[in-house]
Amino acid sequence: MEWTEYFAPLMRGAWVTIQLTVWSTIFGAILSFAAGIGKVSGNGFARWISVVYIEIFRGTSLLVQLFWLFFALPVAGQAIGVDLRMSPVVAGVLALSLNIGAYGAEVVRGAIQSVSHDQYEAARALNFTPRQALWRIALPQAIPEMMPTFGNLAVQNLKDTALVSLITLQDLAFRAEQLRNFTQDSTTIFTIVLFMYFGMALVLTAIMKLLERSVGRWKTARA
Amino acid sequence: MLFGYEWDTSAGPLVFAWSILPILLTGVLVTIQAAVLGFGIALVLGLVLAVLKAAPSRLISWPAHGVAEFVRDTPLLIQLFFLYYVLPEYGLLLPAFMTGALALGIQYSAYMAEVYRGGIEAVARGQREAARALNLSSARTFTHVVLPQAIPRIIPALGNYLVSIMKDVPILSVVTVMELLNVAKIIGDRTFNYIVPLSLVGLIYLIMTLIAAGGVRYLDKTLPKKGIALK
Question: Which residues in B lie closer than 8 A to residue A203 (C-beta atoms)?
């Protein structure tokens, strides 16, 4: 097998990796906002749920979470008579989203809390409801602050997708290992794969920078 | 049976959990050893990388930046596979545990280089000028003036990376290192009960990270007050 022939299977794997990254980054962002806002909300129950979620998923290893969802949860489901078996894709996206969401939640919380207190007082003086103050005053100022860290988390997430190969999902890392078993040509294969991940990370960083610039406009309203 | 310890699946999950605890604790020991060794390697490599990145010559600093970026943007799992399969082809046969610790150290050196850079830049310029006025060589200035002031300040940030490394140790299970998760997975494979061992691993991780985070917070509170203030 010529080394140029490696690209077809690796590209198929890379496409899976890209899809995984996109979906888990999107779901992770939703979870970040849900838990980040939940942690600063006035509702005690929402606060409690958010703190527990964040602590559990930040405090344990991603691989442990992935194995737990994939191997342990179906057994737990069986015990109570519910079918909780998941395909590797679902378990993979779920674990990645939950993990990156917990890290993102702390970023969202920090950014919301960094919005100056005067802004909230001004909003109250103008008779905004707390919800309006959050969505129309705090978040438009907080989101540009979150973007640089979100960029780092997105790259972190891309790197983390490699772990789903361990629950038999056929991403780039899985294809690489498969090819290595077949050809024994470790050096070439893993060099190519490292550069493929690096390329994807550079593209992802560029996209996040564009996003950062486009939400950066929201900040200029503040004189 | 694993490592000479028996487990007991006859009487409920709690008895089972209790019976596998000694086995899991051997895994914890390996996890901590790998994390500490990886952390040590990252401490050294990170400092080297930080110094190279700050080198006056672009011939040195640009490649250093490139290497750091490359290491930071590629998955630990692939770097681990690379070291595990490629190093032996060039005659460097390391045990799986050492390869794993090396991979952890290399990955995190790229992150730690940034921490070092921040700490070094925080040491005021005046200090360096004063050292030069006192006729200290630039190497001596770095080791005796800049670093002793920079390091206490960055210890909490470095500590956070130790926690991160600990959470990445389970990845070493793919090259047969018998760390905590791998041990739990084997128990699960043999008893067909994944819930108890894997949940215990989660719980043990929570306890370890809580203790480590508490330690970092303690250092954060006490350290900067000692030594020379960075002003």
Answer: none
Contact B195 A76 (CB under 8 A): yes
Show the domain range for A45. 19-220
| φ/ψ (deg, to 5) at A221 | -60, -25
- Provide the pLDDT for residue B231: 45
Residue of A61, A68, A162 lying closest to B78 (CB–CB)? A162
**Predicted local distance difference test score (pLDDT) of residue A193:** 95
Residue A17 · residue A6 · CB < 8 Å: no
Sequential DSSP letters for A57-116: HHHS-HHHHHHIIIIIHHHHHHHTT------HHHHHHHHHHHHHHHHHHHHHHHHHHHS-
Residue A2 belongs to a domain: no
- Whether B188 is covered by a domain: the verdict is yes
Query: How many domains, in total, are found in chain A?
Result: 1
Contacts of B146 (CB under 8 A, 6+ apart): B120, B123, B127, B128
pLDDT for B119-160, tens place per residue? 888 887 788 888 888 998 888 888 888 888 888 888 888 888
Confidence grade of residue A149 (pLDDT, cut at 50, 70, 90): very high
pLDDT tens for each residue of A183-201:
888 899 999 999 999 999 9
